[in-house]
Design a protein that fits this description.
The complex is a heterotrimer. Chain B contains 5 helices and 11 strands. By secondary structure, chain B is α/β, with parallel strands linked by helices. In chain B, strands 2-1-3-4-11-10-9-6-7 form a 9-stranded mixed β-sheet, with helices on both faces. In chain B, strands 5-8 form a two-stranded antiparallel sheet. Among the domains of chain C are: 228 residues, Phosphoribosyl-aminoimidazole Synthetase, Chain A, domain 2 (Alpha-Beta Complex), CATH 3.90.650; 179 residues, PurM-like C-terminal domain (Phosphoribosyl-aminoimidazole Synthetase, Chain A, domain 2), CATH 3.90.650. In chain C, the strands form 5 sheets. In chain C, strands 8-10-7-11-9-12-13 form a 7-stranded mixed β-sheet. A 7-stranded mixed β-sheet of chain C has the order 23-25-22-26-24-27-28, with helices on both faces. The chains are: A alpha+beta, B alpha/beta, C alpha+beta.
Chain lengths: 77, 224, 784
């Protein structure tokens, strides 16, 4: 099956990329934007979905500084 | 004494670390795929962009066979020095507390910085005096030190904060101006600035030599 | 009669025109082929016969340049040139441009420009030890959209250069950047690299040995940059196609670089060469497999067969022509004896780079492209590489101004003090620290002089050798041989006078080397010009190359390689003609290289050399909004060369504490730069009228000749001037060889310039260090 992992910077830690994007958007004419955070996406085909969480804990994310969210996509890869 | 300097695909400053280590002892490169640490009495995990910094800096390098040996070596009390990317690898491998995040200014920055020796009583700073200023170059994009508040407090109390950026020299936003930390046992030390680039008056300051000299003192027990 | 290629949709003249060939060129291709070319062949000819690959409009001119000399080990024509630097070592170096891709995507354009020039260095067997870059953009402080674009390109290019150089572990040790309106639409990104190798291990690219295998190694092949070479680099951005037909969208697929991949490729290549496993090596750059394979075959006077089905692909369903013209990065092509193939593949595996045997060397002198064994393209090698028509330039000096005057940003009644501060804060003169702090300048442990520490970068040849020597101040121990390198150019001065402006650029580069005690061994150049089919551009190019040749001959610094980038123009007009000069020199002892900044209070300050300042085409003239001067003052080449020699030897003898070439902004700016770099003030007086002198002893005094105004003396520009500091004795000895005019003393917290002589009026200008530093920091705001 195909899985998608979204990795986000933990709340409370300075996210300079998010800040930079949040500042850039109004300059381009987009008003009313706030709370911007920039993270990472990993997509993969797996046979055993039970492996996903340990994969995230061990390699795909650094749990000290990142939160992650696993999503199983419909259908196979 | 003998140093072992790890080399990963993408390491850049491993040869510089080798030359620096050779000013105080013998040193040899250890390929990431090897488990044999070649009788090294101290290990240096060097700077660079191991595995291209893919995923997160140091995230992949920490799993290499050589690092497995280094983790065991550290658990046995062996001396391990992590420089820049090496510091990142040691944090990812949980040999050191905390993590290194992207610089607050979002840019790779190369600057000669002044560091303050907070703890001169470690095997890596014994050749320095407490509070001594060290002029050492820093060059990185991911050097902002982070740890949770209670971790920082515990580290501070236990003397695990070894080096701080002096004055207004903290360009990467590290919490508490932390530039280098050691583990509770004091045998593993990581810092973002590059002491191997401060060992020769011809190319800059020689303050970095004190860190290598400290390690030699720790192993050999006597002054040169 | 060659076997007829498999049936593919036949292209037509219309396709040829769309690909950038002229009607006449297409007809010549048909003649060479003996029939109309098929798609694969047309795509390959269109690239090989593009300006970028074939140098159609410049090759004849380039043949007039001096390329030989006692230090030259490898001249133009190979991947890079090389000079002997002593100790059995050669230094390979070259500069190349990546202008058009950088205008489209500055980060990747600049990054892949660095990647490309590095590959040229290790393709000849040298380990890269340094990178420098030369950049041109529009005015960054303008509030109009042009300003935002200039800032965007600047930010992207600097990030890209830093990203690639830092990641691969090669220090970026120097460079230059200028901001002028004519570069607004067409930015320039030129990247220079140097490397070291034992002389005997330099490798050439000629394919040889019928039956030998052609092996492609490195990254897999995708659709990067397809059509990039001919489509963009041979036509003005957004212009009509070659025969005046409808406008064609020429945005290619951008090349994306991976420095991590290249690091592995570099180590793999050097180890393959070290182990003697390769017959020859070539990197893949513009026009990918097409140019690499055909050039290797041409140099070796052999043929090459390539089967595109054997090329490791990143994208599914790529057509044969796409495989042949792809500009995917981080790939090398080599020729291997069949017995060595296994060893080559093993080494590739060790370094985790892909590798595949994709072809063979033949005796046919043809480049044949196959697809799973079936022939899809068949061309004579000489037709692709050598028979592209070369065009005569038709130069004519323009009768009216080509470039509009810049907007005035300085009031005509500005005082010298205000003028100095305005110049220091101007984008062309402000400190480049916000840029070079994004580059690792010290990896590999060779860097003796970092950016802003001296006029040229200085790199110890053997970084391990200085272990055990005393500090930089002491002189115990063995000398530490080093290299010095600088990259320089000034488009505006060349626009004012293409011949003298180019001579001045070459002289400035050599003067920068002299300041660190180096003599030039060889030169590389990147010629960045507009559309050579236009008479006034042809004139700029012709005169510039003439100046380049004369200056290099006068300095015995032959050209060992370089690059030409033409068609840098848009609807708003052409760029300034911008020959960019790179020079490498040898420093006998890195412990004696002086520095830019004043070193010690109490030292004497002097103006050295046949400096004859003029405001023509100067930075001050620009700030005043003056139209470009028509012509620059004559240059006394012999006197300048003498001054360079004298300064160089004084630096080598350790007699001078500081030495700095007077360049843009003139004497006052040079003095300010020396104060800032040394964090020391100075009090100087302009004691004599400044006239051009050809010998050290003669000083012309004439009460009938009008004295130049203060502005000319303070801010006038021209080659051959140095600001030095040292002991009185050192200056006396220097005065025996070249003109030396005492200015004053280092000391205090301000730069104070007095009128001198009998004048009883106050100082011409006085500015304290803090204020100088504040003005000089103007570029920091461009990198929030």
């Amino acid at each position: 099956m195909r899985a998608r992992v979204l990795i986000r910077p933990k709340a409370g830690i300075l996210d300079p990329q998010g800040v930079a994007v949040e500042r850039a958007l109004p300059a381009l004419g987009f008003a009313g934007v706030s709370g911007v955070h920039v993270g990472r996406l990993v997509e993969l085909d797996v046979e055993d979905s039970a492996q996903l969480e340990p994969m995230c804990e061990k390699l795909l994310a650094n749990p000290l500084i990142e939160d992650y969210e696993v999503e199983i996509l419909d259908g196979s890869g | 004494m003998k140093f072992g300097v790890l080399r990963f695909p993408g390491s850049c400053d491993e040869v510089d670390a080798l030359y620096a280590a050779r000013r105080v002892g013998d040193a040899e490169l250890i390929w990431h795929g090897e488990r044999d640490l070649k009788g090294a009495q101290a290990i240096i995990v060097p700077g660079g962009f191991s595995y291209g910094d893919y995923l997160r800096a140091g995230a992949i390098a920490r799993f290499s066979p050589a690092m497995e040996s280094v983790i065991a070596f550290a658990e046995d009390g062996g001396l391990v020095l992590g420089i820049c990317n090496g510091f990142q690898v040691l944090c990812e491998a949980h040999l050191l507390p905390g993590a290194l995040l992207g610089n607050a200014n979002r840019r790779f920055t190369f600057r000669q910085v002044e560091l303050e020796v907070v703890n001169a009583d470690t095997p890596f700073t014994r050749a320095c005096a407490g509070g001594e200023p060290l002029s050492i170059p820093a060059k990185h994009a991911w050097g902002r030190y982070y740890a949770e508040d209670r971790t920082l407090r515990a580290m501070s109390e236990a003397g695990q904060v070894v080096l701080r950026y002096a004055g207004s020299q903290n360009f990467n936003g590290s919490l508490d101006d932390i530039a280098g930390v050691c583990n509770e046992a004091g045998n593993v030390f990581g810092l973002m600035p590059h002491p191997e680039h401060a060992v020769d008056g011809l190319t800059g300051s020689t303050d970095g030599l004190k860190i290598f000299e400290s390690m030699r003192l720790a192993i050999e027990g006597v002054s040169a | 009669m060659p076997e007829a290629p498999r049936a593919v949709p036949a292209p037509s003249l219309k396709d040829a025109l769309a690909l950038g060939l002229t009607r006449a060129e297409y007809e010549l291709v048909c003649e060479k082929q003996g029939r109309e070319p098929n798609r694969v062949e047309l795509a390959m000819y269109s690239l090989m016969w593009s300006e970028h690959c074939a140098y159609k409009h410049s090759k004849k001119l380039l043949r007039t340049l001096p390329t030989e000399g006692p230090h030259v080990v490898m001249g133009p024509g190979e991947n890079a040139g090389a000079v002997d630097v002593g100790g059995g070592l050669a230094c390979a170096f070259k500069v190349e441009s990546h202008n058009h891709p950088s205008a489209v995507e500055p980060f990747q354009g600049a990054a892949t420009g660095v990647g490309g020039i590095l590959r040229d260095i290790f393709a000849i067997g040298a380990r890269p030890i340094a990178v420098l870059d030369s950049l041109r953009f529009g005015e960054p402080l303008s509030n109009a959209t042009g300003g935002a674009r200039a800032r965007y390109l600047l930010d992207g290019a600097v990030s890209g250069i830093g990203h690639y150089g830092n990641s691969i572990g090669v220090p970026t040790v120097g460079g230059e950047v200028y901001f002028e309106d004519p570069y607004q639409q067409n930015c320039l990104v030129n990247a220079m690299a140097l490397g070291l190798a034992p002389r005997e291990q330099l490798v050439r690219s000629a394919a040889a040995g019928e039956g030998n295998l052609v092996v492609l190694f490195g990254a897999s092949t995708g659709r990067d940059g397809i059509g990039g070479a001919s489509v963009l680099a041979s036509a003005e951005l957004g212009g009509a196609d070659a025969d005046g037909g409808a406008e064609v969208d020429r945005r290619p697929t951008v090349q994306v670089g991976d420095p991590f991949e290249e690091k592995k490729l570099l180590e793999c290549s050097l180890e393959l060469l070290h182990r003697g496993l390769l017959v020859s090596l070539q990197d893949l750059g513009a026009a990918g497999l097409t140019s690499s394979a055909s050039e290797m075959a041409s140099k070796g006077a052999v043929g090459i067969d390539i089967d595109v089905a054997k090329v490791p692909l990143r994208e599914p369903g790529m057509e044969p022509f796409e495989v042949m013209v792809s500009e995917s990065q981080e790939r090398m092509l080599c020729v291997v004896e069949p017995a060595n193939l296994d060893a080559v593949m093993e080494l590739c595996e060790k370094w985790e780079v892909g590798g595949a045997a994709i072809g063979t060397v033949t005796g046919s002198r043809r480049l044949r492209v196959l697809d799973r064994g079936g022939l899809v393209g068949d061309m004579p090698v000489t037709a692709l590489v050598d028979d592209c028509p070369l065009y005569e330039l038709r130069p004519a000096k323009p009768s009216k101004a080509v470039y509009p005057p810049p907007p005035a940003t300085l009031a005509p009644d500005a005082t010298p003090r205000q003028t100095l501060l305005a110049l220091l804060a101007s984008p062309n003169l402000a400190s480049r620290r916000p840029l070079f702090e994004q580059y690792d300048a010290i990896v590999q442990s060779r860097t003796v002089r970092r950016p802003e520490q001296a006029d040229a970068a200085v790199l110890a040849i053997d970084p391990a050798a200085s272990a055990g020597t005393a500090s930089a101040e002491g002189i115990a121990g063995e000398p530490v041989p080093a290299l010095a390198v600088s990259i320089d150019g000034n488009g505006r001065r060349v626009a004012a006078d293409p011949y003298r402006g180019t001579v001045a650029a070459v002289l400035e580069c050599a003067s920068n080397l002299a300041c660190v005690g180096a003599e030039p061994l060889g030169t590389t150049n990147n010629l960045n010009f507009g559309n050579p089919e236009k008479a006034h551009i042809a004139w700029q190019l012709t005169e510039s190359v003439r100046g380049l040749g004369d200056a290099c001959r006068a300095l015995s610094a032959p050209i060992v390689g370089g690059n030409v980038s033409l068609y840098n123009e848009g609807a708003a007009g052409p760029i300034y003609p911008t020959p960019v000069i790179g020079m490498v020199g040898r420093v006998p002892d890195a412990r004696r290289v002086a520095q830019m900044g004043f070193a010690r209070a109490g030292a004497s300050v002097a103006l050295v050399g046949p400096f004859a300042p003029s405001l023509a085409a100067s930075e001050l003239a620009k700030l005043r909004g003056e139209p470009l001067a028509d012509g620059l003052a004559e240059i006394d080449l012999d006197a300048v060369r003498e001054a360079q020699l004298a300064v160089r030897e004084a630096v080598r003898a350790g007699a001078l504490q500081s030495a700095h070439d007077i360049a843009e902004g003139g004497l006052a700016v040079a003095l300010a730069e020396c104060c800032l770099a040394g964090n020391l003030g100075a009090e100087v007086a302009l004691a004599e009228p400044f006239r051009q002198t050809t010998s050290p002893a003669a000083t012309e005094r004439s009460s009938t000749r009008p004295l130049p105004p203060a502005a000319t003396v303070l801010f006038g520009e021209g080659p051959g001037g140095f600001v030095v500091s040292g002991s009185e004795e050192a200056l006396c000895r220097l005065g025996e060889r070249t003109a030396v005019r005492r200015l004053g003393l280092v000391g205090g917290e301000a730069l104070c310039i007095l009128a001198g002589g009998d004048s009883q009026t106050g100082p011409l200008l006085e500015v304290n260090l803090a204020e100088l530093r504040n003005a000089h920091g103007a570029l920091a705001g461009l990198f929030p």
